[in-house]
Design a protein that fits this description.
Strand order of the largest sheet: 6-7-8-3-9-10
Radius of gyration: 36 Å
Number of domains: 2
Mean pLDDT: 77
Number of strands: 10
Shape: elongated
CATH superfamily of the largest domain: ABC transporter type 1, transmembrane domain
Order of helices and strands: HHHHHHHHHHHEEEHEEHEHHHHEHEHEEH
CATH architecture of the largest domain: Up-down Bundle
Largest sheet: 6 strands, mixed
CATH class of the largest domain: Mainly Alpha
Low-confidence stretches: 47-52, 54-59, 586-593
Structural class: alpha/beta
Helix content: 55-70%
CATH topology of the largest domain: ABC transporter transmembrane region fold
Number of helices: 20
């Protein structure tokens, strides 16, 4: 339960004084409900249904005496008006307390969602390499929803505790012996219910893991829907959804069985205790009607409170794994945090005057492995020139790019910007100076204009068209049904691969970066469009530093410098023709050998 207390502390810190107003409301509701007990005795006596001698119970005798001195009609009217006032007052406070609970719950849930999302985004790139993105989506959607429900249950638990303590106080005033007996059995039954709470927590943990697997699987399937349709793999994926669906169904049914079983046991025990109390009171103590009525009232008021406490604890037990999940995620994000709170818009991008340098750089993703992904990297990338990085798949090209962009920091050696080491102090300034275009272009399910404005929200329409023309995308955008305002579908599915790539390049150029990184960015373009992009890149030389990862020789023929990577090592650096000539000679030697 320490995880629940962790969030309880968070609710208290976030809500502040409003939580105390909520507590006062609970006390008032409980007091109004308790006062109604005292009005039952004179009301029953006045109706004549049952003759009640209130002197048998000293705690309520004064109420009976107060109404005996009044005319019967007046007493009945006063009692009914008081009772009506109590019901209205209780209903009014109950309504406001429910609204206040909802405000506390929803505000805290919103706060928790924003803080979790911020913590994830402020984590470094290494955090995302080690985790699965669908797990973060599951945490932000499913787990936070469950924690929201848990927050409501926690507030209900506080309400139940407040009501229970006040009801116990009132009941103890009426009949100490009876109250102590009910408390004893109630606490005993709650203690025995720990088994149900542990089982509920276990089922909750299984549900959390299944939810993560379900979301991950569905996301992967829809990301690869083209391969599924092309290769007729529908049946295997339908079989998967059937299997995991049955597991989720089984878990939910098991949770319901557990809850209903515990409630059934409570009802059986409740009925047995009630009948035992009445029988014991009549046979052993010859209880009078007033005493029997008080036994019924006290039992009917107190016992449901214990039942409610047990039910809340059991349901919280099922949600505890979600609390644990969010706590672990937050702690992990804090360990990997690379951005502190503050206005990033005030950070000025770095202007590279001379060069970016890697000096004796070593890097590996797992420090427990002996092999380095990159080793002894010593290169210089001149400013305002085009540098191409080539090599086989898995050679370490993308890892080198990640180091140059500050996504990863070297284990040994340094990355320097104009001689200044890249550290956490100037990392964001470097990122603000970079526009990155990946091999797999990412576009949001919105309009062309909204996708472009993502990079520069205050850009004018003229700037948008200028960027589109630079990226050889203006012509096809003009032909779209609504031009800039055309919806392009999920991940830009309504566009061809080449059109998506050109749109992403236009978005990168719109930022007017000092460093443009193209990671196989022209791989999806035909010869004509690639030629257009090459002309764009050529025109940008001298205005920004361009770094290109490419396999096509045509993509890098205008590069001022070519760096070849092989198995994490730099094997040659030089001009385009120099490097290509050496590669051809090496190929001829290997062939003749």
């Amino acid at each position: 339960m320490r995880h629940v207390l962790y969030f309880a502390k968070g609710i208290h810190t976030f809500s502040g004084k409003i939580l105390y107003f909520n507590l006062i409301g609970m006390v008032l509701i409980s007091l109004l409900e308790s006062v109604g007990i005292f009005l039952l005795i004179p009301l029953i006596n006045l109706t004549g249904v049952l003759a009640v001698n209130s002197s048998e119970v000293a705690a309520v005798s004064w109420i009976q005496k107060m109404f005996q001195s009044m005319p019967e009609n007046a007493s009945l009217l006063i009692i009914l008006v008081c009772y009506l006032g109590l019901i209205i007052g209780q209903g009014y406070f109950q309504r406001n307390q429910t609204i206040l609970n909802a405000k506390i719950q929803q505000r805290y849930t919103r706060h928790l969602r924003e803080e979790t999302y911020k913590a994830i985004l402020q984590a470094n790139w290494g955090f995302f390499l080690k985790t699965r993105k669908t797990d973060h989506i599951n945490s932000l959607i499913t787990e936070i929803s469950r924690v929201s429900a848990g927050t409501q249950m926690f507030l209900q638990l506080i309400s139940s505790l407040v009501f229970t303590f006040i009801q116990i106080g009132m009941a103890f005033w009426l009949s100490p012996a009876m109250t102590v007996t009910v408390i004893f059995f109630g606490v005993t039954l709650i203690a025995f219910s720990r088994k149900f709470i542990r089982k509920s927590s276990s089922i909750g943990e299984q549900t959390t893991q299944l939810s993560k697997a379900y979301l991950a699987g569905v996301t992967d399937h829809f990301n690869g829907i083209k391969e599924i349709k092309s290769n007729s793999l529908e049946d295997s994926h339908i079989s998967w959804i059937h299997t995991i669906g049955k597991k989720l169904e089984h878990n939910i049914v098991e949770m319901i069985k557990l809850n209903t079983t515990s409630q059934f046991i409570f009802k059986v025990v409740s009925a047995c205790l009630m009948t035992s109390f009445v029988l014991y009171s009549i046979k052993m103590f010859q209880a009078q009607p007033t005493q029997l009525m008080l036994i019924m009232v006290i039992f009917s008021r107190l016992w449901p409170r214990f039942s409610g406490l047990q039910s809340n604890l059991e349901q919280l037990g099922g949600i505890i794994p979600s609390f644990v999940q969010l706590i672990q995620l937050k702690n992990e994000c804090l360990k990997q945090n690379e951005i502190t709170d503050g206005d990033q818009r005030s950070i000025e991008p770095i202007r590279i005057e001379r060069e970016i340098e890697c000096r004796n750089v070593f890097f590996r993703y797992n420090t427990n492995q002996s092999q380095f992904t990159l080793q002894n990297i010593n290169i210089t990338i001149p400013s305002n020139q085009m540098t191409a990085i080539i090599g086989r798949s898995g050679a370490g090209k993308s890892t080198l790019i990640d180091l140059l962009m500050g996504l990863n920091l070297p284990e040994k050696g340094q990355v320097l910007i104009d001689g200044t080491p890249l550290t956490s102090e100037n990392l964001l300034s470097l990122r603000h100076a970079i526009s990155y275009v990946p091999q797999d272009p990412f576009l949001f399910n919105s309009t062309v204009k909204e996708n472009l404005l993502l990079m520069k929200p205050d850009a004018s329409e003229e700037e948008l068209w200028t960027a589109l023309r630079f990226a050889a995308a203006a012509e096809f955008v003009k032909k779209l049904p609504q031009g800039l305002h055309t919806l392009i579908g999920d991940r830009g599915i309504k566009l061809s691969g080449g059109e998506r790539q050109r749109l992403v390049i236009a978005r990168a150029i719109l930022k007017k970066p000092s460093i443009l990184v193209l990671d196989e960015a022209t791989s999806a373009l035909d010869t004509e469009n690639e030629e257009n992009i090459q002309q764009v890149i050529q025109s940008l030389k001298g205005e920004m530093t361009i770094i290109v990862i490419a396999h096509r020789l045509s993509t890098i023929r205008n590069a001022d410098q070519v760096i070849e990577v092989e198995q994490g090592n730099i094997i040659q650096v030089g001009g385009f023709h120099e490097v290509i000539q050496k590669k051809r000679k090496a190929t001829e030697i290997a062939t003749n050998w």
